[in-house]
Amino acid sequence: MTQNGIVLVASVSIFKDDEVLIIKENKPTAIDKWNFPSGRIENGEDILYTACREVKEETGFDVKLNSTTGVYNFISSTNDQVILFHFTGEVTGGSLNLEEDEIIDSKWIKVNDLMKFEDEELREPRVLKKIIKNLFKGNMHSISLFNE
């Protein structure tokens, strides 16, 4: 959702055992960039619902949200102010089915290997590296911070 130049986004790190899923985007503002499944919160939509919907749309997986690494406020590469709500989750159903045209690749990777990505490989590297650092350090908070 965009309101007064502010873009609201929900993002999810999906865990399986000791690995996390990342996707490679092929969107006009992010060609060949790695990211976590994410997308804009639609008008009137619950943040937790958005996070699960975006994962389903981009990966084909159903997820259960477990925690949050926080809320990140930044100016994007397209010069929008973005408020990003980042969650962690686990697969509860579905199967890998990447969103046609917009997602061109995915891989399961250990969190410490995420730290090896170069800035030019990541979408919004400053914020992604903050998220990755929080994941690596286990800096996660209860999902109950977001009232359903």
TrEMBL record:
<dbReference type="InterPro" id="IPR000086">
    <property type="entry name" value="NUDIX_hydrolase_dom"/>
</dbReference>
<dbReference type="GO" id="GO:0044715">
    <property type="term" value="F:8-oxo-dGDP phosphatase activity"/>
</dbReference>
<comment type="similarity">
    <text>Belongs to the Nudix hydrolase family.</text>
</comment>
<keyword id="KW-0378">Hydrolase</keyword>
<dbReference type="InterPro" id="IPR020084">
    <property type="entry name" value="NUDIX_hydrolase_CS"/>
</dbReference>
<feature type="domain" description="Nudix hydrolase">
    <location>
        <begin position="5"/>
        <end position="133"/>
    </location>
</feature>
<dbReference type="GO" id="GO:0044716">
    <property type="term" value="F:8-oxo-GDP phosphatase activity"/>
</dbReference>
<dbReference type="InterPro" id="IPR015797">
    <property type="entry name" value="NUDIX_hydrolase-like_dom_sf"/>
</dbReference>
<dbReference type="InterPro" id="IPR020476">
    <property type="entry name" value="Nudix_hydrolase"/>
</dbReference>
<dbReference type="Pfam" id="PF00293">
    <property type="entry name" value="NUDIX"/>
</dbReference>
<protein>
    <submittedName>
        <fullName>NUDIX domain-containing protein</fullName>
    </submittedName>
</protein>
